[in-house]
Amino acid sequence: MSRPRLTIGTYGEIWFLSTDSGKIEARAHYRDWDGKNRLVQARADTQASAERRLKQKLLDRSLFNVSPAHTLLTADSSFSELVDYWLNDLDLEGRISKTTRQLYERNMRKLVMPVFQGLTLREVGVARCDQFIKQLAKLSYNRAKQARVVMKLAFGLAVRHEVLPRNPMDNIARLKRPAHTPNALTPAQVNGVRAAILHWESGQSPSGPKPDGQLGGIVEVMLGTSARIGEVLAIRRCDVDVTSSVPSIRICGTIVSLKGEPTARQDHPKTAKSCRTVAIPSFTTEAVRKRLARMKDTSPEALLFSNRGGAPLTTANVRRQLRHVLGLAGITGVSPHMFRRTVATAVNEEANIELAAELLGHTDTRITVQHYIRRNEMVNPETAKLLDRVFARDE
User: Fold this and answer.
1) Interval 207-236: pLDDT, tens
2) How far apart are CA 167 and CA 158, in angstroms?
3) Are residues 197 and 158 in the same domain?
4) Which tens digit of pLDDT belongs to each residue from 108-122?
5) For residue 196, what are the domain limits?
6) Does 89 lie in the same domain as 207?
7) C-alpha angle 108-112-114 in degrees, rounded to nearest 5
8) Distance CA 150, CA 110 (A)
9) Are residue 299 and residue 349 in the same domain, yes or no?
10) Where does the Tyr recombinase domain lie (predicted)?
């Protein structure tokens, strides 16, 4: 055995010895996460090669193999194991809603897992993640964005629990959002939608199930409140005030349909800050009064819109019914969320963006501008008068 040649920090000394096969073996003691010193060794044909291999082993151990005692993951664990570990951690934290939890799992299993499930964590680097997100973005910006979110969260957990030294998603190229102009209905188009629904609810259309008179009321409430479809379907009798001098509706819940569970009312909207009381216009007040008069359940908690048994309507069924009814009238491309953009655009044009954001329950007007306001291409006519004054012809 030769004398120690090198001391490298916390790894201790490296020493060398010859093996029966003629190889040179480099050895060093390494202090693991649990505080125990363990012997690490590497063999090669020469002393220099053995030393390089040992140093690489020590470096890999330092970077990847320090794991808390309760964490069974290592850098050699599969990506699938990390996903299961991450989902379990989300359940333990309990900070996100069940809807968001199911959305994260769906995005991870459908968008990411088919590509990464055969890899170990050690094999997933920045370049691989960067290429994956770029390729996915060619197909769909939204899918790429959703995949990026769940991957960053899962790898972030691996970093926090010291399974990986760094998050490979931190250094990928930024996604470029494609140009997008929010679409909204004009007043004439809104009246066309109303006419189509009225025609269907009057029983003049032979197609589809017998109308129950609720679709028209749902649309009028969306137009009068800017509420999301789930929020409208969650309105209860106690949330409605049509007897005051200023009729109003309180938006304080939403409808959720979780996998394996019955559709139910959630006691808060998309976010807690979205709770708000909205003064409603006369057309919405009239629709609500008609609906209240037809309701058999007079309890305060009774839903304004429900199925025959009083249970919540699903947002998917209402969307499907709206497409069917408007399709009969030759109207396409109208979704419940378009009414929300239509209301935001109207309020912005008649008043200002701050009022539109307040009505929608947004805390940041940039969200309202980017996603809900249809751009008005008409330049202020004052420019014509100004140019007439400056460049008028000499007679």
Assistant:
1) 556 788 899 999 999 999 999 999 999 999
2) 8
3) no
4) 999 999 999 999 999
5) 187-371
6) no
7) 115
8) 11
9) yes
10) 180-388
Domain-embedded: residue 182: no
Residues 6 or more apart from 323 whose CB is under 8 A from it? 334
Residues 143 and 191 grouped into a single domain: no
Rounded CA separation 82/189 (Å): 50
**CA gap 253, 250 in Å, rounded:** 9
Q: How far is the C-alpha of 385 from the C-alpha of 388, rounded, in Å? A: 5
CA 64, 66, 69, 70 torsion: positive or negative? negative
Q: Is the pLDDT of residue 367 over 80?
A: no
Count how many residues are written for the chain. Answer: 395
Q: Which of 24-28, 200-204, 228-232, 284-288 has the lowest mean pLDDT?
A: 200-204
What is the C-alpha to C-alpha distance for residues 67 and 32, in angstroms, rounded to an integer? 9
Which of 112 and 5 is assigned the larger pLDDT? Answer: 112
Residue 355 near residue 347, CB atoms below 8 Å:
yes
Q: State in Å, rounded, how far the first CA of the chain is from the last one.
A: 110
Whether residue 208 sits in one domain with residue 151: no
Q: Does a structural domain hold residue 176?
A: no
Q: Do residues 256 and 267 make contact, with C-beta atoms less than 8 angstroms apart? A: no
**Which regions of 254-355 does DSSP assign to beta strands (E)?**
254-256, 264-266, 276-279
Angle value at C-alpha 275, between 270 and 280, nearest 5 degrees: 115
Q: 269 with 341, same domain?
A: yes
* Structural domains of the chain, count: 3
When the pLDDT of each residue in the chain is averaged and rounded to a whole number, the result is 87
pLDDT band at 3 (very low <50, low <70, confident <90, very high): very low
Cα distances from 340 to residues 35, 287, 313, in angstroms, run 59, 18, 19
Both 214 and 163 in one domain: the answer is no
User: How far is it, in rounded angstroms, from Cα 193 to Cα 392?
Assistant: 46
Give the type of residue at 246. Answer: V
Flag whether 391 is in a domain: no
- 128 in the same domain as 257: no
pLDDT for residue 207: 59
Assigned domain for 261 exists: yes
What is the model's pLDDT at position 77?
92
